[in-house]
Specification:
With 379 residues, this protein is mainly α.
Length: 379
């Protein structure tokens, strides 16, 4: 829907396309694929800044001057819902040799997992259409040999006891690392050049990886906030409600908005820091849910002070009293100044499926762990 570029049969997004895909329900105008020549692609990649020059305006600055593959698109979507505490786990999953650096081959290993998982889900049907889809998404005409096992050969994994001392993720990825030489990329992309340089020889350290992930989350939130703020330092409580309900499965959002309007007579506004803190909390929603279940929250309601304290204890995120009050006014449909599991967490779990609304085949990719573990344990 959002890809606008094509090179040698494979479709790509520009950074602008990606931002549209995660902030809009559909393209603002019909997309027509523009074919790139090798010279045009090289020119785009030549203008890609190195990772140490990254910022929370990277995608906006690149705009149309960049190419993002389908597997990179899935990876970037995973980042948007990853809590900061999980950035180290994500980095370790890439760092298969445990040298605290990620090189290009290690990065491509995880991309191959995305490919193979999608191929396994392909339904039988018109082989010609399936072949065209593989070309458009992955850049090859026929299914590649599995990176996990080559035809007629049993894969002998490296000793898990040797690697388990470092981390479970590296143990799981050890056999993949041994076959990294078999993984090829159809062409370089903006993300590969940004991470590993124009020659592909640079390595990515954790600090740069963390900064990239944090900047991407911040950039998308800034874009959503600015689309409602009209140049002001705050957005209205009603606009905040619109953004929260945007990707949920709530059919009658007007009832939530009416509920909030009647409960907040005087508009104070939501600052960007408040806005960002709430979405940082949502990225930790799984930890919060577990903590609340321990206190039997799933079967009872809680008040504002209890909610605010529980958020901080479970996730480390501090929410302002005004922000908590606004959330309660939006979701407290029975107006008892209490929030139930059904009223809040059930709806907010839908909100984390940003970019996947109505696209059930790949909803499992909305957290980084599920991107990986299903493939690993299916072996």
């Amino acid at each position: 829907m959002f890809a606008s570029l094509e090179f040698e049969g494979q479709l790509y997004m520009t950074p602008h396309d990606f931002i549209q895909a995660v902030t809009s329900d559909e393209p603002k105008r019909a997309k027509k694929w523009r074919s790139l020549s090798k010279q045009e692609l090289n020119q785009i990649l030549m203008e890609t800044p190195p990772v140490w020059k990254g910022s929370s305006k990277l995608f906006r600055n690149l705009n149309e001057k960049g190419v993002i593959s389908y597997t990179e698109y899935l990876f970037l979507l995973c980042i948007l819902t990853k809590p900061h505490a999980g950035f180290r786990i994500a980095f370790n999953m890439f760092d298969t040799d445990g040298n605290e650096m990620v090189d290009k081959k290690e990065f491509l290993v995880l991309q191959e997992i995305f490919r193979k998982k999608n191929e396994k889900r392909e339904k039988r049907g018109d082989e010609e259409k399936r072949a065209m889809l593989r070309l458009q998404l992955y850049g090859y005409h026929t299914p590649t040999n599995s990176v996990l096992k080559t035809e007629g050969e049993d894969l002998v994994p490296r000793s898990y006891w040797d690697t388990l001392r470092r981390s479970t993720s590296q143990a799981l990825f050890s056999d993949l690392a041994e076959r990294a030489d078999d993984i090829t990329s159809s062409s370089d992309t903006t993300l590969l050049v940004h991470f590993f340089g124009k020659k592909g020889k640079a390595e990515l350290n954790f600090e740069d990886f963390y900064r990239f992930m944090d900047n991407l989350q911040t950039e998308v939130l800034e874009i959503e906030f600015l689309s409602y703020s009209n140049g002001m330092n705050t957005i209205s409580e009603e606009d905040f409600a619109h953004i929260l309900l945007r990707y949920t499965n709530v059919e009658n959002t007007s009832s939530y908005l009416e509920n909030m309007r009647g409960s907040i007579p005087e508009e104070k506004g939501i600052t960007f820091e408040e806005f960002r803190s709430f979405f940082q909390f949502l990225n930790n929603l799984e930890d919060f849910t577990i903590a609340m279940q321990m206190y039997n929250f799933a079967s009872r309601s809680i008040g504002q002070d209890e909610f605010k304290r529980a958020v901080y204890v479970a996730t480390g995120v501090k929410l302002s009293p005004h922000l908590v009050n606004t959330v309660f006014k939006i979701f407290d449909v029975d107006r008892d100044d209490q929030l139930s599991y059904k009223e809040f967490i059930g709806i907010m779990k839908d909100r984390l499926n940003r970019g996947f609304r109505g696209y059930k085949p790949i909803q499992r990719y909305t957290t980084f762990k599920s991107c990986v573990r299903k493939e690993l344990y299916s072996r």
